[in-house]
Backbone:
């Protein structure tokens, strides 16, 4: 029993990390149908900038805020100098541009920061909380809470605010969106800025648990993307559920089957789910309005 | 025709400069992984070689000739390494080579140097580089096998004979795991349970929970590299496992203590004397060498020393000593002298190379360390 609980705690810890990364994909996908593969690099930038500002003597809370600002600036620059000039060239071209941007950002981080691993002190007391023979770090709860808070904000932004609706409209049909008076360029730019901010916050929250280095982005983006697909890309609720599910799958596979094959087991389950439900668990069926 | 004459004179001048230079300087090659995934190895190696070649030249060089270091960066790509090896041999005409940062790069370059009959002193870890012995190939770093043997010897001393392994699935973790499994029976250690984790995993509590639940396990050994062992150590304490935990020489750096934090307390690991330079007793023969290297490196780069840079120091110095004994730079003579290296005190240990041992280190090269209060202490 305590084993089961421990596996669940482990899954939630890792899953919360995936969920935070998956949430970052949601907004950009909603505004321009693009999977932003540089999302992992936003996560890396958030963590690494905080670490280095902290090393330079900036108090950590301030360093974290500055890191978010820096990452948002990078997100806006990515939109302005890479996505914007290529607008109208189709989603595949834009996705490839984001892959290029991710390689560029990783290389730049190697030069600007360094190639070592770094950590941040946990936000709340470091001692593990013990429940029925299993234990979970308080920081894991912070990450979980962060994922839920971002989820609620994001959901109300997309579903309830006018700008959020403008984003969805831009993704659905850019020309029509422009015709009804939406500044589609600014809307897409805003989605990059907010996604960068989500990525940065994720990076800061997970660094005390998962550590950070210039090249963590690739794998995080991959796992986050898998989580987002599982949950249904574009759905904020789906991103969180997908992330937690992926984390739990990995933990139970590692605990009950074999640690060698945990990734394989997790991805096998994703494949099966997507075969049965190609839009993911919470994905919307495509509706063509004429 | 003055224009032709001018050009001709210029060419003659350039040739003369070129010829003069090649006579005055002896070229030493180094193919290192300065960038890319193995840059944490290659970067200190390059800095060390550059620093000490400058030192040597400032003191008048070797055998009255100045050394010229030719460094190529293979970016941890074995194919690139082989191309650069050919260039070192055919274009630069080096007299010897210190390098091969990674095992892959070294193995790719060995045929080039064997064929050209130029000595190669590798800085990579795997035992395959010097087993079987190849005439022109040497290496300076200790091996995974020695690390396993050192850990097992320490376990035996504490009367702990049943262990669990949790290893990374990266190249380092896999290779060391295989070596540990291979030498365990000879050392009288039985491995009761095995777990693994991916090099980028951020939580290893499920694997550790399984180890915790295995009856009879007396200690846990973690062959691994990078951030994985730091997370294993944290999770180990999080789960409150009271068994002794052993890490490998792969994480023998201050960075590990920084990343694992308070959880690192009590962890034991084998490491080269270099890491505990200041803590060695005064009569330790390695003390002057490692203290002087540490001071030089930190002064020059402002970064903490790593054993990797130390391996480069050992390789360079073994070459320089051999060249001095040979009285010249004839590759065949230098090779013979490298093979006769006896009681060379390097950062990695005391080196005694022989025709059937091209590494020349024994288990005394490793010191067993225990982390206490965020710092290394020597286990007596």
Residues:
């Amino acid at each position: 029993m305590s084993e089961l609980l421990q596996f669940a705690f482990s899954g939630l810890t890792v899953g919360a990390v995936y969920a935070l990364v998956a949430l970052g994909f949601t907004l950009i996908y909603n505004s321009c149908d693009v999977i932003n593969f540089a999302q992992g690099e936003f996560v890396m930038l958030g963590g690494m900038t905080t670490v280095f500002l902290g090393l330079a003597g900036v108090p950590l809370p301030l360093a974290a805020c500055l890191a978010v600002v820096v990452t948002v600036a990078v997100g806006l620059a990515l939109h302005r100098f890479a996505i914007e000039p290529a607008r109208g060239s189709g989603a595949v071209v834009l996705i490839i541009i984001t892959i290029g941007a991710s390689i560029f950002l990783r290389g730049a981080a190697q030069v600007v920061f360094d190639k070592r691993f770094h950590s941040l002190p946990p936000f709340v007391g470091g001692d593990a909380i013990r429940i029925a023979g299993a234990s979970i770090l308080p920081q894991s709860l912070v990450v979980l809470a962060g994922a839920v808070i971002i989820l609620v904000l994001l959901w109300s932004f997309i579903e309830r605010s006018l700008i959020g609706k403008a984003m969805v409209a831009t993704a659905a049909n850019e020309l029509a969106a422009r015709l009804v008076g939406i500044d589609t360029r600014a809307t897409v730019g805003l989605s990059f800025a907010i996604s960068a901010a989500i990525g940065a916050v994720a990076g800061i929250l997970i660094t005390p648990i998962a550590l950070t280095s210039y090249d963590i982005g690739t794998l995080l983006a991959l796992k986050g993307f898998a989580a987002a697909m599982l949950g249904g890309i574009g759905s904020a609720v789906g991103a969180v559920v997908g992330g937690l599910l992926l984390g739990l799958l990995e933990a139970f596979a590692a605990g009950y089957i074999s640690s060698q094959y945990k990734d394989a087991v997790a991805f096998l389950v994703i494949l099966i789910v997507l075969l049965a439900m190609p839009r993911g668990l919470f994905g919307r069926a495509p509706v063509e309005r004429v | 025709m003055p224009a032709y004459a001018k050009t001709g004179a210029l060419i003659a001048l350039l040739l003369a400069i070129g010829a003069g230079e090649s006579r005055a300087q002896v070229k030493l090659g180094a193919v290192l992984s300065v960038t890319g995934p193995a840059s944490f190895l290659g970067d200190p190696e390059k800095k060390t070689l550059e620093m000490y070649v400058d030192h040597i030249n400032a003191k008048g060089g070797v055998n009255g000739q100045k050394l010229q270091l030719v460094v190529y960066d293979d970016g941890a790509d074995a194919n690139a390494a082989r191309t650069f090896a050919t260039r070192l041999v055919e274009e630069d005409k080096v007299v010897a080579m210190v390098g091969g940062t990674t095992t892959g790069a070294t193995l790719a370059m060995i045929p080039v140097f064997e064929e050209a009959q130029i000595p190669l002193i590798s800085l990579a870890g795997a035992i395959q580089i010097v087993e079987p012995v190849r005439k022109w190939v040497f290496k300076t770093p200790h091996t995974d096998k020695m690390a396993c043997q050192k850990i097992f010897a320490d376990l035996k001393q504490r009367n702990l004979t049943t262990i669990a392994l949790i290893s990374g699935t990266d190249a380092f973790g896999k290779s060391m795991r295989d070596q540990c499994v291979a030498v365990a029976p000879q050392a009288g250690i039985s491995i009761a349970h095995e777990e693994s984790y991916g090099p980028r995993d951020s939580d290893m509590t499920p694997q550790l929970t399984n180890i915790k639940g295995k009856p009879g396990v007396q200690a846990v050994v973690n062959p691994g590299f990078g951030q994985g062992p730091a997370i294993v150590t944290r999770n180990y304490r999080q789960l409150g496992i009271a068994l002794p935990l052993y890490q490998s020489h792969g994480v023998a750096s201050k960075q590990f203590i920084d990343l694992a934090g308070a959880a690192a307390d009590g962890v034991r690991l084998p490491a080269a004397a270099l890491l505990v330079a200041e803590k060695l007793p005064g009569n330790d023969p390695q003390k002057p060498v490692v203290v002087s290297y540490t001071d030089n490196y930190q002064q020059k780069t402002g970064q903490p020393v790593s054993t990797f840079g130390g391996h480069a120091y050992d390789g360079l110095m073994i070459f320089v000593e051999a060249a001095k004994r040979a009285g010249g730079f004839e590759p065949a003579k230098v090779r013979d002298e490298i093979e006769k290296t006896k009681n060379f005190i390097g950062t990695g240990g005391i080196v005694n190379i022989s025709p059937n041992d091209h590494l020349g280190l024994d288990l005394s090269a490793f010191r067993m360390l225990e982390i206490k209060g965020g710092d290394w202490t020597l286990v007596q």
In short: The first strand of chain A starts at residue 129 and ends at 131. The mean pLDDT of chain A is 88.
